[in-house]
Amino acid sequence: MDAPQKPRGCTNLKLRQVTRLVTQHYDTEVGKTGLKTTQYSLLSHIQNLGPVRPGDLARAMRMDASTLTRNLRPLQDAGWVEVAAGDNARSRSVQLTESGRAKRQEAQRHWRIAQEALNERLGVAHVAALHALLDETVRLLDVGAAAGMQP
């Protein structure tokens, strides 16, 4: 039996290259709604979790609080997201407005087109295998982070 081949090159570079290509693919289609893919993802998370505290939303999306605040601002300005007082004076709650739900639904149709095109281009089995590998990688990195391991 052959020994596993040692990885060549920088994993971070390879992931960033794939991420750029995939993001361009989705942004081209989802952008027809006036949203970036990241904004669609944020609207989707808020819909699925909301009303949700900003800290919980940031954790669910694996982003820091300042990035979340920066990404919420254009959605608030457009009237799609509302940040209101939470359960107590120190907490806040994020939720979609009616127009935010409508915008997310519009963008979801375009996201589906982009997803189906990617499935066709790469093959459903390849995409499913990629998802499984990415999910397992996130799980392993989360376990390492919880144990205090440095990347």
What do these coordinates show?
- This protein has 151 residues and is mainly α.
- The protein has helices at 11-30, 37-49, 54-61, 65-77, 98-122, 124-146, and strands at residues 81-85, 92-96.
- It has a two-stranded antiparallel sheet with strand order 1-2.
- A hairpin with a 6-residue loop joins strand 1 (81-85) and strand 2 (92-96).
- Helix 2 crosses helix 5, helix 3 (54-61) crosses helix 4 (65-77) and helix 5 (98-122) packs across helix 6 (124-146).
- The chain is globular, with a radius of gyration of 18 Å.
- The two termini are 30 Å apart.
Quick structural summary:
It contains six helices and two strands. With 151 residues, the chain is mostly helical. The chain starts with 10 loop residues before the first helix and ends in a 5-residue tail after the last helix.
List keywords for this structure.
mainly alpha; single chain; 151 residues; globular; two-stranded antiparallel ribbon
Strand percentage lies at 5-15%
General form:
globular
Number of strands: 2
The pLDDT mean sits at: 91
Indicate the structural class: mainly alpha
- Name the strands of the widest sheet in spatial order: 1-2
DSSP helix fraction: 55-70%
Q: Count the DSSP helices.
A: 6
Q: Over the alpha carbons, how many angstroms does the gyration radius reach? A: 18 Å
Distance between the termini: 30 Å
Q: Encode the helix/strand succession as letters.
A: HHHHEEHH
Main beta sheet, described? 2 strands, antiparallel
Q: Give the low-pLDDT segments.
A: none
